[in-house]
Write a structure and sequence with these properties.
The chain contains twelve helices and no strands. By secondary structure, it is mainly alpha-helical. This is CAAX protease.
Amino acid sequence: MTDQLPEWMLRAFSDLRLARYTSAARGNAAVAGRLYWWNVEASAALYGSLHCLELALRNALHHELRIAYGRADWWAAAPLNPNGQRLVAKARSKCERRGLVPAPADDIVAELSFGFWASLVSGGSRYDRLFWVPTVHKAFAHYSGRRDALYDGLWSLVLLRNRIMHHEPIHHRDLAADHAKIYRMLGYLDPQLAKEAQAMDRFPVVLASRGDVLRGSRPPRF
C-alpha cells in the first residue's frame, strides 16, 4: 500500500482537500490520487448536461414570467421574497460594474443563479401560490406531478452543480441517480433538448470506467 501522495500534488491542491480522498481510499495514497482525478473527470463529464438544464430552466421560467407580468424586467413587479430581491440587486450590480447602466433585463437574467431560478418552484414565501399556480408550472409542459417533488429534484441538482463548480468531491454520491435526474428534469422542460444532449453525453462511459481508473488500468481523462 502506498501511503504518501506526491509532494507536488499536496502543494498544488492542499493536504486538507486531498485528505478526504485518502480517507475514502482507506489510506491508500495511490488510489486516493486516482480517485481525485476521476472526480475531476466525472465533474467535467456532468458539466454539459447541467449546462443544458440550467439554461433551459432559466429561459423557460423567464419566458413565462415575462408574459405573465407583461415586461422583460418582471422581477420589478413580481412578489419576490427578500432573498430573491437581493439576488436580483446583486445581478444588477454586476452588470452595472461592467458599464451596463441601466442594466438590460437580458443581462440581469444571465447573471441570476441556478439556485434563484430553482427557488421559484419552491413553496417557501408562498411561492407555491404566488408563482407556481398562476405561472411557473407552465414552464414544465411535460410534467404532471407534484410541485414539491419537482422542487426537491431541482434543488438537489443545484447542490450537485455547486459542488462541481467549487471543485468539491462528488464521487461519494449516487451519480447514476443524479445523472438520470438531470435528464428527467430536462425532459419536463424540453424533451427534444434532452434527447439531443443525451446523444452527446459521455458521462455513462466515465461512470462505468471508475473501477478501471481506481485500479490503475485506465488513466483518467478530462
